[in-house]
Design a protein that fits this description.
With about 170 residues, the chain is mainly alpha-helical. The protein has three domains: about 1-30; about 35-65 and about 100-170, no CATH class; about 65-100, no CATH class. The chain contains nine helices and no strands. It has helices at about 1-30, 40-45, 50-55, 70-75, 85-95, 115-120, 125-130, 145-150, 155-165. Helix 4 crosses helix 5 (about 85-95).
């Protein structure tokens, strides 16, 4: 009888761990609710490249949210009857920033810079997925240490020691 009790507890613990992993993954990959419905897909289909709006990416750890001036530079004349664009214009006129919810966020103890990744020939889709095909932007990868290291150790042998060194990402 005692042995069955331990087996039952073991099964419950395993089921709890599996449920926790599944729920965590679902939460990570769910698109957060944003204050304005924004579609990268519409903008990419219009021929706009990622770096046109995300100008900080080549020189910063953050790709950055485009300035309201950047948005309104186009939307003063394009699609002005669209209710979502009217919301953007309303934020712009009030001087308030749009309270976007960040999609990809690294902990404070992680040092990340887009520049070496772009310099190595990676494109935005390598890490962020096919954002240009998303009507609603969501995270596609859990960008944790294991995920980063998996990519770093697949690099040319002469670079692996430097890329797998703790100080490459933790300063």
């Amino acid at each position: 009888m005692n042995r069955l009790w331990y087996i039952g507890i073991f099964i419950l613990v395993i089921a709890g761990v599996i449920a926790g992993v599944i729920l965590t993954r679902l939460q990570v990959y769910a698109a957060p609710e944003q204050p304005i419905m924004y579609s990268h897909k519409v903008h990419v289909e219009a021929g706009i490249q990622c770096l046109f709006c995300h100008t900080s990416a080549p020189k910063s750890s953050l790709a950055g949210v485009p300035s309201m001036q950047k948005c309104m530079g186009c939307h003063n004349t394009i699609d002005t009857d669209n209710p979502e664009i009217q919301q953007v214009a309303s934020y712009y006129e009030s001087g308030e920033p749009i309270p976007w919810v960040r999609i990809n966020l690294q902990p404070d103890f992680v040092y990340f810079d887009h520049q070496p990744h772009l310099g190595a020939g990676l494109n935005c889709e390598t890490c962020h997925g096919e954002v240009g095909q998303m009507a609603v932007t969501r995270q596609v990868e859990k960008m944790d240490m294991g995920w980063c290291l998996d990519c770093h150790i697949k690099q040319p042998e002469d670079k692996v020691a430097r890329l797998a060194d703790c100080l490459a990402c933790h300063k």
